[in-house]
Records
---
Amino acid sequence: MNNYPIFDNHSLNDFVSSIKARSKSLKSKYYYINIEKVIEGVEGFDAKAELTLRKSRSHKSITVRLNVWPDRWVWVDAREASDKGWLWSFNEEGRLAGGKNWSDVIRCAEAMAEIFTAGVDNGAKKAGEIWRKTLVKGPVGEARKVRL
């Protein structure tokens, strides 16, 4: 993986830099690693980063996909295919939590490989625990006002 996309957004470039910094660890856990710049919208100004990680060559391999938007919103999809459909799947989305950085997101993606490769019972529950402290949901913007 030598071609890394360049974005017009500082946050997405930080995400790509985190992938570069963790590339050795990622390569030890995943056979296939691909990061792409995906243009959304008619104007082509809105771009997101798509990271695809696959455990092996097989199309049935464990696959973890991350979509990252400029506003720090992250969508995670992990699954394993079989001849008869999905053996399991996991989906989560949320905004990168305060105090967290893109390296934390990459570490979560690495941990996903370890959970499902080891065949951990309740894998989706364990995956949810991994992402719970890194991705948050809820309103963005003005902080809640506290009555005194």
---
Amino acid sequence: MSFGPTLIKPKEIELTDLDGNVRRYIISRFDAIKGREIITKYLMSNLPRLGDYDISSKTMLDLMSHVGVPADSDLGYIRLTTPALIINHVPDWELLGHIEKEMIAYNSSFFEARNTPRTQNNLRLRGPA
């Protein structure tokens, strides 16, 4: 059982917050139309000097509504569908950025995850094969 619509292809991940606590999240796929909207807005609204913070912020909220946290008992997960839920379950801005990167990578073949000593969740643009 979950709160809100079912996540598409849910995948559990673990990320570490700024205090060193390991936290579990459930990321998911976007449907085709929502994915096109989120990816386009996310990339365009975050361009240096051209981006629009208000659109970026609204897009982050839309993206995060496709993320869940494991719930106690038999509830499955709780979707992070409101700013209050995000603040309650994501304690710092850096962790929020890592979740966003994981979601973009999971929903787009344009990006791939790579490991570095600083973090195991960095992204890089995939070049020609």
---
Amino acid sequence: MEDITTFFSCLHKRFNTEDDLSDITWSLLKTSKEFKNIFFKFLFDDELKDVDMIIREKSFNNSRPDFYLKDKKNKKEYIIEVKKDDLNIHKEYKKEFEHMSRAFIANYNGNDSIYGTNKIYQFVRNWESFVIYLENEITKADKCFNLLLIGYLCYLKKAINYWEAKTMNLSYTISITTYYNMLNKIVIDLKLSFKNGLRGHGPTFYGNYIDYFYSKSKFETFWLGFYLNELPPVLCIEYDKYNGPNETNFFYFDGENKLYLKEEFNLNLILIICH
């Protein structure tokens, strides 16, 4: 089982966008009848056993829902819109697909604009509820399908930043103060500057953006902090080599405080910070 969870964890490191989540879910729907029945029952309150067409991003005029389903036997059609945190709910789908059953699943709960009096979607769900639903199904599954569900759950939890509630140990929160005081000393000693206007922390990471001025007007920005969706949390440095999207280099420290480089580039700035 460890190999299965490791594989899906590694899969998430490379494939973690909203489209990736849809692609991997689609792959499982095409592979396993058991998963197909579970997913459709969760979304539509029905197993939809006779669905024989599952198309990823089928185009309709100017619309392209994430999943299009067709039950040829009963001549029924369905669409599913998949979201993580994207708030574009596609209001046009109500008119475009009014003859179909429409389901919506996201990382947030729907509001009146989704399923209120206008009813853009007849069925609205969230990923956290699906995680709990799948965990209940695992106990009923045979051995082979059980492993597949465990692997997919491992991927899904990481993809949606699912965090299970655990007992808090407040005695360790002093480490946050220690981290900040240490970082503040580095910034002062090396004549660096905290970056204003950038939020350096969120549900799965905690850190700070810092500017390194190598002349009066020229500087580089990097982020130093912890990724909290790993256990134990991982201390990382993030450096945007080209100041553009998807061009970020990550450095991380292992348990022996060795610095590992994810992608090779000039280490001068990083070595200054790690001094």
